[in-house]
């Protein structure tokens, strides 16, 4: 049985909205993302984030007051058509992975780790939801966990010659090196305690003096290459059309933080569930 997608309506831009479809769009004449507040929905195949919010009072006292509505993918409302002169970009995080540290939850960054069985199911559900949008392009990180999800999205797109308007322009996913996950360098295979809480806090605050050795990246470096890849993908996309990229936690944070006008040192606060869809 497939894990159902979850839907949550939010009243306004909020902490929990970072896991949701915000419906921010891009005008075709510019690469700048402009907020469009017609729809505010969380689409997530991972129930844990919603359960944590309920348990910790994340929606209490009017701060983010919103009821969680459990529903199957077919019952989730469809976004309005893309307005004239705009493009829509769906950001999809890959499904749950098998942590390479086993009982030790380690950082793995750009290592090519495998999806768990649940992670594959999550990716299939995300692909089923996006089947409703007739995407012009399906892009992916070069890592296998993202490519699996991207192929689930592409496989569920309307077939050429169907009654649907607008079909995918390619028979395969588009791989973008710029959408690769943050490289943790020498921190790969280490737990948070082994790295050090203070050092990680400095890293999250964009103190580049603690950027890990052996090819590790900082958030500003990541954000620069991710936004370049985003602009390339949007440049391939026609006005009035939508595309999707299946990638990673930090990649999604980079694009979403830019859309929300957040600095790189605020990225670590964005919560993005596995196999969630953000737009």
Give the helix/strand layout.
Layout: E1 6-9, E2 20-21, E3 25-27, E4 41-44, H1 48-55, E5 68-70, E6 86-93, H2 117-130, E7 137-140, H3 144-155, E8 174-175, H4 192-195, H5 197-204, H6 219-236, E9 242-247, H7 249-259, E10 277-278
Helix pairs in contact: 2-3, 6-7
Query: Could you state the order of secondary-structure elements as H and E?
Result: EEEEHEEHEHEHHHEHE
Percent range of helical residues: 25-40%
Share in β-strands: 5-15%
What is the average per-residue confidence, as pLDDT, rounded to a whole number?
Answer: 75
Count helical runs: 7
Q: Summarize the main sheet.
A: 6 strands, mixed
- Low-confidence runs of at least 5 consecutive residues: 1-72
The Rg value, from CA coordinates, equals 18 Å
| Strand elements, count | 10
Ends apart, CA distance between termini = 27 Å
Shape: globular
By secondary-structure content and strand pairing, the structural class works out as alpha/beta
């Amino acid at each position: 049985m497939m894990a159902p997608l979850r839907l949550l309506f939010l009243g306004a831009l909020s902490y929990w909205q970072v896991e949701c479809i915000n419906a921010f769009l891009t005008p075709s004449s510019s690469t700048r993302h402009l907020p469009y507040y017609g729809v505010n929905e969380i689409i997530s195949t991972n129930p844990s984030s919603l359960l944590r919010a309920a348990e910790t009072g994340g929606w209490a006292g009017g701060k983010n007051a919103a009821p969680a509505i459990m529903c199957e993918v077919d019952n989730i409302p469809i976004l309005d058509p893309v307005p004239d002169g705009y493009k829509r970009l769906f950001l999809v995080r890959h499904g749950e992975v098998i942590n390479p540290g086993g009982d030790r939850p380690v950082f793995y960054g750009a290592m090519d780790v495998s999806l768990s069985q649940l992670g594959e199911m999550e990716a299939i559900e995300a692909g089923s939801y996006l089947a409703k949008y007739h995407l012009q392009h399906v892009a992916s990180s070069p890592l296998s966990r993202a490519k699996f999800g991207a192929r689930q999205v592409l496989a569920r797109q309307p077939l050429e010659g169907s009654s649907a308007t607008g079909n995918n322009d390619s028979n395969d996913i588009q791989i973008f090196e710029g959408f690769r996950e943050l490289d943790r360098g020498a921190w790969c295979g280490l737990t948070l305690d082994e790295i050090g809480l203070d050092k990680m806090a400095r890293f999250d605050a964009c103190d580049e003096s603690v950027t890990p050795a052996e090819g590790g990246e900082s958030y500003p470096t990541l954000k620069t290459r991710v936004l370049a890849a985003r602009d390339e993908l949007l440049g391939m996309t026609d006005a009035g059309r939508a595309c999707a990229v299946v990638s990673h936690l930090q990649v999604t944070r980079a694009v979403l933080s830019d859309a929300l006008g957040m600095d790189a040192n605020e990225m670590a606060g964005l919560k993005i569930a596995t196999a969630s869809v953000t737009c």
